[in-house]
Amino acid sequence: MDRTLSITLFQRLLGAEFFHLAPAIKTLHGRRGEFRYAGIASVRRGRGLPKALLARIARLPPAMEDAPIAIRFNASPESESWQRRFGSASMQTRLQARDGLLKERLGPCTFAYRLVRVDKELAWTVERARVLGIVPLPAKLFDGVRCRESQDDAGRYCFFVEARLPVLGLLIRYEGWLEPDDGAGTAAVSAASGRIA
């Protein structure tokens, strides 16, 4: 059997570094097929019309505090789709590997990230970006984009994403935690009640 068909997208991009990540990160990025995670997230949005327009174009979620989040994953060795639901707002992305980078399609924008292990955490750094798949954007524009995955003291997968743009400042910041959700687990109960477990 071809080994490339038995590993996940993130395992392929990270190589041996993958196995030094925190258990919660390895569990999420080591799964294949369709599965679901749920938890709690908070979203902060920058104020002002230009930021609101950019957020709308990128289909980013609205501001919210300690709101339920659910993500449906469909993972194969070649690509992954993430269907996120922040409260009643949806946000979908598609991930693929290209030239050793993780390519994400988000609305009309496509980003290419370099994945870097930092101790037991996973950081995403923007290397390239395009609009409509053809118009390149200067990577310098995205120096203020930070994406970090970690594990909290309760053993839960945690995420932190922040996007700051030159001149405009904060576009969005969202963070929270996720747990595997089989429809009857603690993640589903906690998320439905709006509580942080």
- Strand order, biggest sheet? 1-2-3-4-5-6-7-9-10-11
Radius of gyration: 16 Å
Shape, principal axes of CA atoms: globular
- Based on secondary structure, the structural category is alpha+beta
Question: Mean pLDDT, rounded to whole units?
Answer: 86
Classify the helix fraction into a percent range: 10-25%
Measured between the Cα atoms of the first and last residue, the distance is 42 Å
Q: Which parts are unreliable, with pLDDT below 50 for 5 consecutive residues or more?
A: 184-197
How many beta-strand runs?
A: 11
Order of helices and strands: HHEHEEEEEEEEEEH
- Largest pleated sheet: 10 strands, antiparallel, barrel
Number of helices: 4
Multimeric status of the protein? single chain
- DSSP strand content: over 45%
Give an account of the 3D structure.
The chain has helices at 9-14, 23-29, 49-57, 186-193; strands spanning 33-45, 64-75, 79-86, 89-98, 101-106, 109-118, 121-131, 135-137, 144-151, 157-165, 169-180. It has 197 residues and is an alpha+beta fold. A 10-stranded antiparallel beta barrel has the order 1-2-3-4-5-6-7-9-10-11. Residues 184-197 have low confidence and may be disordered.
Relevant terms:
single chain; 197 residues; alpha+beta; 10-stranded antiparallel barrel; 4 helices; 11 strands; 15% helix; globular; disordered C terminus
